[in-house]
Fold this protein.
Amino acid sequence: MKVLVQKFGGSSVARAEDRRLVVRHILRAREKGYQVVVVVSAMGRRGAPYATDTLLDLVAGQDVSPRDRDLLLSCGEIIASVVLAGALREVGVPVICLTGAQAGIITDSNFGDARILRVEPQRVLQELDNGRVVVVAGFQGTTENGEITTLGRGGSDTTAAALGVALGAEAIEIFTDVDGLKTADPRIVSDARTIETVTYNELCQLAYEGAKVIHPRAVEIAREKNIPLRIRSTFSDSPGTLVLPWRPEASSVAISCDRIVTGITNVAGLTQLRVQLDTESAAREVFSALAEANISVDFINLFPKEAIFTVSNSVAERAIFLLENRGYKVYARPGCAKVAAVGAGMRGVPGVMASIVNALTQENITILQSADSYTSIWCLVEEENMEKAVRALHRQFKLSA
Ligand code: ADP
Ligand code: MG
């Protein structure tokens, strides 16, 4: 029988009336003859009683080990799965809930941001064969030693993708509160367009650059086995965005008509650091020291006498302290944000950077730093200009509906 994995995000399972819509999507899949595995996130966002951030707040300021914090956090998804299973049972669907561990999600022991190493799907397969819908608590797994781990923000997407691959699913559906991948965050650009089809690579790039509708790791996992992925809304029947290894329209449309920029992304909460380099070995020392402290850096521009890069605000103080302690002069600029134009079609197309500079300077937005790859161009701007910058770039590349 064909297996379908359906993942429902926190906003999809928060309220009883939403859960009824979730149940409807599951019933439809069963009517189409699928064996259904459902992955759920914790219910609601910060403030909601069992949301991940609310659970975190319970121990704010306390000296909790990463291991114990994961134990606490894993409860949010377990609660959501039991509540959703109740709603399924009410309409007569045979169902069983499994924790990540019970579903065979084996991870490394990097608490708080664990990586799935493999999936042992026997239990899930057995339950499916018994005719049940299997509801799996997302965002969590277990180490070989039976310690509970969590997978980091957006981790339920990863759970869904890993189960999809392990079960040889026909497709993985990511249900959320918007009807697919859009040309920009719809909270910033109200007329952002839903993208009908996208390649794994483009989606992965967009997700890494800040399109938080799906976790990039989930896309990578699905891509490995070419499992079709669909991003769609719990609250509508629209088909959403289909993710494939190739772009169907690209083969039949002249290259010049192909889109250059697929979407605009943004990431707030960054600090730009400039470090003065006085000796030959300084650059190596600086980046080794940061790596040893597990501080990830982005947006790196290296010059003979200076290194410029960004770190997330949450680790900026630690990074500065660490470098100053080693005698480096560090200039920090907090309150930065990254905006990026992403698209596989920009490869080799002249003038994309010119368009970006044009759009931003017309809005009096200072570009603090920029960088590019084959498929994206990033600009660092002041956080207060971030939304304006996203809208300007969205207009510049005519991405609206
Ligand atoms: P879930 O709880 O379902 O996982 P998330 O909050 O993680 O939901 O992701 C959905 C949100 O992602 C949307 O509400 C939207 O504001 C945001 N988002 C950011 N960029 C994009 C984009 N390019 N396309 C769609 N949604 C986006
Ligand atoms: Mg999410």
